[in-house]
Amino acid sequence: MTRYIQPLPSPRPRPLPILLYHSVDDDPPAWIAPFTVGVGAFREQMDKVRDSGRVPVRASQVIDALRGEPGAPPLPDNAVLVTFDDGFHDFTRHALPILAERAIPAALFVTTGALRPGNESLLPPARMMDVAEVREAVAAGVEIGAHTHTHPQLDTVRPQAAREELTVSKYVLEDALGADVDLLAYPHGYSSASVRRTARHIGYRGAFAVRDVLSSEDDETFRVARLTLHADTPAARFDAWLRGHAARVAPHPESAATRAWRAYRRLRAFTPPRRA
């Protein structure tokens, strides 16, 4: 008689909180205010990161681990990553000193069109970093990645436009910094299979999305999950994220709602406006 042996369940991926910030300021422009964390709140959150028992890591470490790079050490079981999108001036003024005081590394994904006078990006008016401030961040140990040139919803633009956005942003940063830039974050967190293939072909080694779920060592290298910090993110939820709770754990397939939302946005992007 053959005895059936039930296979052991696959181990649950270890949750990796990747925190996504935009602005750290007490008086932000109204349009970014919902995505702005006050200076005091940010200081408290970074104190919690430092005291949580988690090990702050660099974005390149996460990508190296996901890619299985030869010789790359595995991520600590209790890793955490802090990231910033867009490149607001308050990163230099407020966030960077708080991070430096606590020896917490960070990654900053820069919209290169906003670096130039006159703001060539789609971002509404706000004080943004300039090239000198980006270099200052690099000197302080911040990893710099691309965030496109004009900040479009990449999954709704034509393939050639997406390629130009990803290429120009990479080259502008590399020219300014004199170093390779091979990390990327998608504006709004939006991507598609085509966009991700394009990013890989251009020379990016990995890319960060949003998704508002916990990442893990099994996450997708070109769709790494992050958790968005808002002005009203409850302290209890932040604490739970650091414990690896209060959110799903990547990887998981795109939901039907996500696909439907993309289709709707594409339809709006490609539909000519009605004439009066």
Number of helices: 8
Helix content: 25-40%
Q: Give Rg in angstroms.
A: 19 Å
Query: SSE order, as H and E?
Result: EEEHEHEHEHEHEHEEHH
How many distinct beta strands? Answer: 10
Task: Summarize the biggest pleated sheet.
Answer: 8 strands, parallel
Subcellular location: Secreted
Protein name: Polysaccharide deacetylase family protein
GO molecular function: hydrolase activity, acting on carbon-nitrogen (but not peptide) bonds
Keywords: Signal
Key structural traits:
single chain; 276 residues; alpha/beta; TIM Barrel; eight-stranded parallel beta sheet; two-stranded parallel sheet; 8 helices; 14% strand; globular
Description of the structure:
By secondary structure, the protein is α/β, with parallel strands linked by helices. Helix content is 35%, strand content 14%. Strands 1, 4, 5, 6, 7, 8, 9 and 10 form an eight-stranded parallel β-sheet that branches. Strands 2-3 form a two-stranded parallel ribbon. Helix 5 packs parallel to helix 6. It is globular and about 40 Å long. The chain starts with 17 loop residues before the first strand and ends in a 6-residue tail after the last helix. This is Polysaccharide deacetylase family protein.
